[in-house]
Every structure is written in structure tokens, then in C-alpha cells.
């Protein structure tokens, strides 16, 4: 087994997790919010284990990969053999606009 590489959550992605938790805690319950954030973190661990498992989404941005975690998508890039999670976006967002520098 190779060395353990931590997924690097960008500050924006960290804020996305906080916002997602807050939204689902109000909408449903803290338990449901916890479960969703745990699923997002579990997926991040899968990204760390095999960052090349998901295809590059060149139609959105060169070097960006995407992993769906319904109803969100984790976007990440690979730098120096280490994945960096950039935004975590709701599947209904205009991801092309956001990734190109637009607003959330």
C-alpha cells in the first residue's frame, strides 16, 4: 500500500460543507445533515485512495474531476499527485459558470 495522501479541502470547499450542513440541519434535521456531510467525507476518502478513478471534466474546466454525491457534486483537481477538493456544488447549480469564476 502506498503512502496515505490526505484530500486537501480548499477553504471554499470547507465553507461549502459548513453551508450544506447548516442548510440540511434547518431543512430536515441535524442527524440528516450529519449523514450527508459524512457521505461527502467518505467520498473524499475514496478520492484520496484513487484520484484517477473519475474522469476529467474537460467540458467544464481542464484538470477538474467530478464525483456525484446526490444531490451534490464534489469537484477536485490533482496537484503534485494529491487531490485538492475545490467546490462542492448542488447538482442544480450552473457548474460551468461557477467553475469559470462566476458566483454560486
Class derived from helix and strand content: alpha+beta
Number of strands: 4
- According to CATH, the fold-level topology is YaeB-like fold
Q: Uncertain spans, ≥5 residues at pLDDT below 50?
A: 1-5
Distance between the termini: 38 Å
CATH class (first level) name: Alpha Beta
Instruction: Give the helix tally.
Output: 3
Give me the oligomer status: single chain
Percent helix, as a range, is: 40-55%
Approximate strand percentage = 15-25%
The CATH architecture term is 2-Layer Sandwich
CATH superfamily: RelE-like
Output the strand order for the largest sheet. Answer: 1-4-3-2
Instruction: Give the total of domains.
Output: 1
* Rg value: 14 Å
Morphology call: globular
H/E order of the elements? EHHEEEH
Describe the protein's topology:
Layout: E1 8-9, H1 11-27, H2 30-49, E2 64-69, E3 72-79, E4 82-90, H3 95-99
Parallel strand pairs: 1-4
Antiparallel strand pairs: 2-3, 3-4
Question: How does this model look, in words?
Answer:
The protein has one domain (8-99): RelE-like (YaeB-like fold, 2-Layer Sandwich). Helices cover 40% and strands 24% of the residues. The protein is α+β, with helices and mostly antiparallel strands and 104 residues long. The protein has helices at residues 11-27, 30-49, 95-99; strands spanning 8-9, 64-69, 72-79, 82-90. Helix 1 packs antiparallel against helix 2 (30-49). Residues 1-5 have low confidence and may be disordered. A four-stranded mixed beta sheet has the order 1-4-3-2.
Amino acid at each position: 500500500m502506498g503512502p496515505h495522501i490526505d484530500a486537501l479541502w480548499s477553504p471554499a470547499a470547507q465553507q461549502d460543507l459548513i453551508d450544506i450542513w447548516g442548510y440540511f440541519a434547518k431543512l430536515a434535521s441535524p442527524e440528516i445533515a450529519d449523514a450527508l456531510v459524512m457521505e461527502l467525507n467518505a467520498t473524499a476518502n475514496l478520492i484520496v485512495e484513487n484520484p484517477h478513478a473519475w474522469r476529467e471534466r474537460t467540458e467544464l474546466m481542464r484538470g477538474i474531476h467530478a464525483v456525484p454525491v446526490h444531490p451534490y457534486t464534489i469537484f477536485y483537481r490533482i496537484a503534485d499527485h494529491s487531490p485538492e477538493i475545490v467546490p462542492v456544488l448542488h447538482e442544480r447549480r450552473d457548474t460551468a459558470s461557477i467553475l469559470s469564476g462566476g458566483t454560486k
